[in-house]
Amino acid sequence: MESNSEFDVIIIGAGVMGSSTAYHATKRGLKTLLLEQFDFLHHCGSSHGESRTIRLTYPHHYYYPLVMDSYRLWQEAQAQVGYQIYFKAHHMDMAHHNEPAMRALIDYCRNLQIPFKLLGRQELADKFSGRIDIPEGWVGLSNEHGGVIKPTKAVAMFQTLAYKNGAVLKDNTKVIDIKKEGGTGGVEVFTAGGEKFRGRKCVVTVGAWAKKLVKAVSGVELPIEPLETHVCYWRVKEGQEGKFAIGSGFPTFASFQKDIYVYGTPTLEFPGLIKVGVHGGEPCDPDKRPWGAAVMMEKLKEWVEFTFKGMVESTEPVIKQSCIYSMTPDEDFLIDFLGGDFGKDVVLGAGFSGHGFKMAPVIGRILTDLAVHGETKSHDISYFRIARFRITSMI
């Protein structure tokens, strides 16, 4: 086999997780190949767009060290590339004071000694100068660990740094099979275009396509459901624009109700527009996208009108952007070895369930650890093992 077809690690899928893995692999001097089935920076998956929230508040304690590490790693990488990816802001979680999700967040902050303020309706209105309202009986949990990540810029950043460190990047290269290589070990990766690459290790980070690819190469049926979701941008009314801008004190935010989970960010990417969306979507085949209507739009309009006290136009969002979630049943990640005949030669990073982007720098490092050392000592990933689901091979 030609030397330019042999690599220490082959990474399949060049979204944020795969690109971050390529960055970390090349930092360690590994000969790295990053493959993408579409154009780089495409809009068909989960890693495109203009903003993602980064927040520390989670109902599960095992995310705390991952997010804290990611804050540092985002800043470290952006310093190397020379442009800004992470924009700091406070974060606000809002819900009824008896809502289980809110009680879990309060306990989380207390147990981990995260400084926070719990605000009633009037206190919250005072803190944000009347820009945010909540119903009676609700509370707001405010902390300083929020912010906005620029996703397309972030993916480009990791790819740029990986390329500068010697990675080979190939887009429009769809992988159709992975086989265990006998004799010297490692794997062979086959593409739809007839190319074949050999790698000592392989990392699969193909997002919504993970279920299809993993089943094709191993027979394992992963419990990942692709959902089509939408990001919506709403026009701030004339004269009010500065009140919602990044850097004005306006926070990233999340609002929990039994039937709708709303999230959003301050105005940043589109002047005069604020991003507010619903967490969730409709099941879809990523290869046959319906590019359908946004879910729960009427409830979202009501939320925008009430929460922003009429300062944001709630008749209709002016921009709608579609993307895909890759949901697991418990909304936790899948970070593990594929196992079976592949043993530890194929590493899987999948099922990031609409909330993993913020942790991409540390997840890329963990996936590299697994590929290089067969383990990671930096973080406890036992919560993300495939074995927590009852999965058997179909082959």
Automatic annotation (TrEMBL):
Keyword Oxidoreductase tagged? yes
User: SUPFAM superfamilies in the record, alphabetically?
Assistant: FAD-linked reductases, C-terminal domain (SSF54373), FAD/NAD(P)-binding domain (SSF51905)
Pfam families named in the record = DAO
* Keyword Oxidoreductase carried by entry: yes
Q: Which cofactor does it need?
A: FAD
Gene3D superfamilies per UniProt: D-Amino Acid Oxidase, subunit A, domain 2, FAD/NAD(P)-binding domain
Q: Which UniProt keywords apply?
A: FAD, Flavoprotein, Oxidoreductase
A Gene Ontology molecular-function term?
flavin adenine dinucleotide binding
FAD dependent oxidoreductase domain location: 8-370
Family from the record: Belongs to the MSOX/MTOX family.
The protein, known as: Putative sarcosine oxidase
Originating species: Glycine soja
